[in-house]
Each structure stands twice: as C-alpha cells, then as structure tokens.
Amino acid sequence: MIHILVIHGPNLQLLGTRQPSVYGRQDLESINRQLRQQASQAGVGLTIVQSNHEGQIVELIGRAKRTSQALVINPAAYTHTSVAVRDAIEAAGIPAVEVHLSNIYARESFRHQSLIAPVCRGQVSGFGAASYRLGLEAAIELARAAEPQPPARSASRPRRSAATSRRRH
Ligand code: DQA
C-alpha cells in the first residue's frame, strides 16, 4: 500500500486563529480530517505531523525514505530559510510536493524565494486549505507513477476461442 507523509511546519498549529485574512478560518485538525478522508478514498496510507522544530522536520523526512512513497510539505517559515530541510528532501529522494495556503509570491518580498521548491516535484500555493487537497492529489499520482510495475505478460498469440477450436475438428 502506498504511504504518504504530510508535514506541517512551524506555527501551522495556529491555523483558524492566525491571520485568518491570510490563512483562512479552517483549523489544522479540520484540514487533517479532510486529508485523511481523501487518502482513505484513494486507498493510500497517511501520516500527518506538525512540528515547530527544524531538526525534527529533518529527521521525519529522513525516516520517510524508508516508510513513505511521497511527501507533502508546508515548510511554513522554513520555506524561506532552511537549507537543512531542503537538503533532507533532496537526500530522501522520494517525490515531494510543497504546499502553501497563501500565495507566497503575492506577499512580502522575503516570501518570494523558496529554498525548498527546487528539490520538490511541484508547488501549490495560494488556494487556502485546498492547496493541501491538490498537493495530496499530486503526491498520490507521483507515488503511483513511481510504483514498480508488475512484469508485462509476454505477447503471445491470442488464444483461440472454444467455438473456433471446435469448428476445426
Ligand atoms: C505559509 C507561507 C509562509 O511564508 C509562512 O511563513 C507560513 C505559512 C503558507 O502556508 O502560506 O507560515 O507556508
């Protein structure tokens, strides 16, 4: 079974009350409930973690290499500062999708640079809680595409139907 890790970075535990005009009124638990439902409908396993600690995020990503086939990450403020998170994603080697609730390119200039984006397969930014839904959808597709395919059956000649065989006797 495909397993996906979702990481919420620093301060995202405050969603719902933190700058609702920027991040919306939906709290983190409600976003997580929707993600769990989406994952169960798609038949994939999900682990969701929120952390305010860069080192812990680095360790989670390091472990994901063995436990998960894709990563969805909202690195929050670490998006703009963390070479350590970037290096961890690159080293893990599993497909990663960066998500942001707000459109980071329409905000202060220090948010316009993501150190994480170059090591992710793509980025979803600016759709509120829907950024996570779209990000998880992309991660599921990436994980499925990377799954080892069963060996192709040899291209043998089509078997004759019983009716055809009988006619020849
Ligand atoms: C954020 C954008 C970041 O710039 C900010 O530091 C956050 C949240 C977002 O989801 O829009 O904490 O990642």
Please characterize this protein's 3D structure:
- The chain has 169 residues and is an alpha/beta fold.
- The chain is built from 6 helices and 5 strands.
- The protein has helices spanning 20-23, 28-42, 54-67, 83-92, 130-146, 162-168; strands spanning 3-8, 45-50, 70-74, 96-100, 122-125.
- Strands 2-1-3-4-5 form a 5-stranded parallel beta sheet, with helices on both faces.
- Helix 2 (28-42) runs parallel beside helix 5 (130-146) and helix 3 packs parallel to helix 4.
- The longest helix is centred in the last third of the chain and has 17 residues, at 130-146.
- It is globular, with a radius of gyration of 21 Å.
- It starts with a strand and ends with a helix.
- Mean pLDDT is 92; it is low at 161-169.
- Bound molecules: 1,3,4-trihydroxy-5-OXO-cyclohexanecarboxylic acid (DQA).
- 1,3,4-trihydroxy-5-OXO-cyclohexanecarboxylic acid binds next to loops.
- 1,3,4-trihydroxy-5-OXO-cyclohexanecarboxylic acid binds at residues 11, 74, 76-77, 79, 100-102, 104, 111.
Architecture blueprint of SSEs:
Blueprint: E1 3-8, H1 20-23, H2 28-42, E2 45-50, H3 54-67, E3 70-74, H4 83-92, E4 96-100, E5 122-125, H5 130-146, H6 162-168
Parallel strand pairs: 1-2, 1-3, 3-4, 4-5
Residues 11, 74, 76-77, 79, 100-102, 104, 111 line the site of 1,3,4-trihydroxy-5-OXO-cyclohexanecarboxylic acid (DQA).
Strand content: 15-25%
Count the helices. How many? 6
Relative helix content: 25-40%
Ligands in the model, by name, code or SMILES, are: 1,3,4-trihydroxy-5-OXO-cyclohexanecarboxylic acid
Report the count of strand segments.
5
Strand order of the largest sheet: 2-1-3-4-5
Q: List SSEs in N-to-C order.
A: EHHEHEHEEHH
- Main sheet, how many strands, which sense, barrel? 5 strands, parallel
Could you say which structural class the secondary elements and strand pairing correspond to? Answer: alpha/beta
CA radius of gyration is: 21 Å
Tell me, briefly, the overall form. globular
